[in-house]
Structure formats: C-alpha cells, structure tokens
Amino acid sequence: MSTAGPPQGAQHRSAQREGTPVPPAPALAVDGLAKRYGETTVFADVTLRVAPGEFVAIVGESGVGKSTLLNCMAGLDHWDAGRVLVGGQDLSALDDDARARLRRQALGFVFQAFHVLPHLDVAQNVALPLMLLGRHGTDATVAAMLDAVGLQGLGTRLPQQLSGGQLQRVAIARALVHRPALLLADEPTGNLDPATAARVMDLLVAQVRAHGTALVLVTHSEAAAARADRVLHLTAQGIADAQG
Ligand SMILES: Nc1ncnc2c1ncn2[C@@H]1O[C@H](COP(=O)(O)OP(=O)(O)OP(=O)(O)O)[C@@H](O)[C@H]1O
Ligand SMILES: [Mg+2]
C-alpha cells in the first residue's frame, strides 16, 4: 500500500535533467493516513494520489470511515498519523487560517445532506464561495453556474421551494462556482431517486470534465462508481484498487 519511487521533488529534478515531460503535481496526495477514536482504529495506512482532472471513486462498507477520510482530505477533521497534501501543500504545515484559505481557493465540497443555507436564496447560496474570496461583480458568474446545472431562472427561490434534486444541484453549483482544482463529494446522490441521481451525476461529471477538476467521490452507488477513472476500496487496513 506504499507508493513506490523517489519523493516527488527528486522525480521532478531527474525528469528535468533527462528532458522528459515533468508529471504535474497531484491534485491530492494522502500518505499513510491513520485515524483513531481512542483505542478504536477507523482506518490505517491510507495512501493515494489523485492526478489533476482525475475522477476517483471511493467505496466501502458503511462505517468504514469514508466520510471521515473525505473530511481529513479537506482538513476539516484531525488524523493520528500520515499526511495530506492538497495541490502540493501539506495541510499539517498550515495553521487554521492558512488551511481555511487553501480550502476556499482550491477545494469544493459537496455534502450528502446538501448543507444549503435556508435563509439565503439560490443565487446567494451559490455566490457564497466567491464572497468569501472577496470577489466582486459575481452576478454573471453565478448566473452562468446556475445555467450550467439547469437551474436558470430559479436564483431568487429559497431552498425550501426546491426539490431534492434541485437542492443537490445548488450544492454542486456552490462547490464549483470558484473553479476549485479539487472537488470532494460525499454521497452526492445518496438522497435522490435513481433517475434524478443519474441526471445529477451526468451534470457533475460534465462539469468536472469540462474544467479539468479532480474529483474524489464517496459513494455506495455502483452506477456512480462505474463513471470513475478509478475505484478504490476503503477498509480498516487501508485503501486499494477495487476488485472486479
Ligand atoms: N466522534 C466520534 N467518536 C467515535 N467514533 C466516531 C466518531 N465519529 C465517527 N465515529 C466512527 O467512525 C467510523 C467511521 O465513520 P464514517 O462516518 O466516516 O463512516 P462512513 O464510511 O462514511 O459510513 P457511511 O457509509 O454510513 O456514511 C464509524 O464507525 C463511526 O461510528
Ligand atoms: Mg459517510
């Protein structure tokens, strides 16, 4: 479960000397990550790389730690051993503020339970990441994003006036509006009927493919995992290519 080869920096330097193309830094690198609650190990020795623009699905039994792992990747949870690098930046080396800044700039996160703010309308929800980045004149960007996820004309609705599938599209629009290099999605279609889930997956995959966004998708859905470039299976012992 270890990644063979010299450290990234050494690889880059020797590739440059030989005139071979330099591989891009991974969008996400996780090395020997372990998470425990007291005496209970949730997972140990999780090592993986996600290339820029790559779509990786993570599957595994309920309770094995998929959401915990995704939260660690976003620097939203603590771990007990190992490290997480987002766009080459080691999260452990950053203080809370720097971590929050990196998260705002480089990451999008789609939660299973939408986490749409109920008192903001659809357009305000989608505009939130841009506001946090201090960007101005974002109306056109938000409108284009709503268009891209098929919610044109619904910007002034409140979340309670939307269906589950529409709410999930708001969450996806919000996670992608600032064009992060990496999108982390936790069961984004878990609350939807199969036909709506398939449409939401179509849209999610189309968006990440169009913009070269790396995607890590946690899912129990075989149909959703089948769309990925790679499927990884999380167990208490670590993470490996899913068999069959
Ligand atoms: N604060 C906590 N204290 C102790 N154990 C916890 C805590 N939070 C989560 N756990 C445990 O950690 C394990 C991993 O939980 P997690 O939510 O990551 O699983 P999951 O793989 O996402 O499951 P599901 O597929 O059902 O969403 C579970 O066994 C859970 O009970
Ligand atoms: Mg979970």
UniProtKB/TrEMBL annotation:
Residues 1-26 are annotated as: Disordered. InterPro entries: AAA+_ATPase (IPR003593), ABC_transporter-like_ATP-bd (IPR003439), ABC_transporter-like_CS (IPR017871), ABC_transpr_LolD-like (IPR015854), MacB-like_ATP-bd (IPR017911), P-loop_NTPase (IPR027417). Pfam families: ABC_tran. Transmembrane segments: none annotated. GO terms for molecular function: ATP binding; ATP hydrolysis activity; transmembrane transporter activity. It comes from the Bacteria. Keywords: ATP-binding, Cell membrane, Membrane, Nucleotide-binding, Transport. Coiled coil: none annotated. Residues 28-244 form the ABC transporter domain. GO terms for cellular component: plasma membrane. PANTHER family: IMPORT ATP-BINDING PROTEIN. This is Putative ABC transport system ATP-binding protein. It comes from Pseudorhodoferax soli.
